[in-house]
Amino acid sequence: MKNTGLHRRILFALAGIRDGFVREKAFRQQSIAIVLAIVMLAIVRPPAIWSALLLATLAAALAMELMNGAVETLADHLHADRHEAIRIVKDMSSAAVLVLNLANAALAIWIIVAAL
User: Which of 4, 13, 49, 54 is geometrically suited to a Cys-Cys bond with 8, CB 3.0 to 4.6 A?
Assistant: First the structure.
């Protein structure tokens, strides 16, 4: 992929999104969460900055879910047996997704409460 044109790099990235959607249930769930958040934003109509912040953090969570899936796929490929170091890497990667999801939930709740 090094020294390839932008068009090919975009195609590689789109293939990664496709693979994430096909292989990772959590990625599909994150995608649904973004759709629901967009609906919520359309109903609540918060100031644009809050909408932009929530959408940006949801996109970050979706990207982190892709990274988590990539880490888990690579770890399983390199070391299929149970190994403490692999478990730690996978757990920490999952924890990063959880932190973002908790922040997103708190932000969504804040937006809804502020709109009441």
Answer: 4
Which is nearest to 62 in space by CA: 9, 24, 11, 108? 24
What six digits make up the tokens of 52?
Answer: 């932009």
Model-level pTM? 0.83
**Can you list the pairs that 71-80 forms with residues at least 24 positions away whose Cβ atoms lie under 8 Å?**
73/23
Q: CA 37, CA 31: separation in Å to the nearest integer? A: 10
Short-list 112, 11, 25, 101, CA closest to 58: 101
Multiple choice CATH, 6-115, 1.10.287.3610, 2.40.10.220, 3.90.1150.10, 3.40.30.10? 1.10.287.3610
Q: How far apart are CA 14 and CA 43, in angstroms?
A: 30
- For residue 30, how many other CB atoms are within 10 A of its CB? 24
Q: Is 29 exposed, middle or buried (0-12, 13-18, 19+ CB in 10 A)?
A: exposed
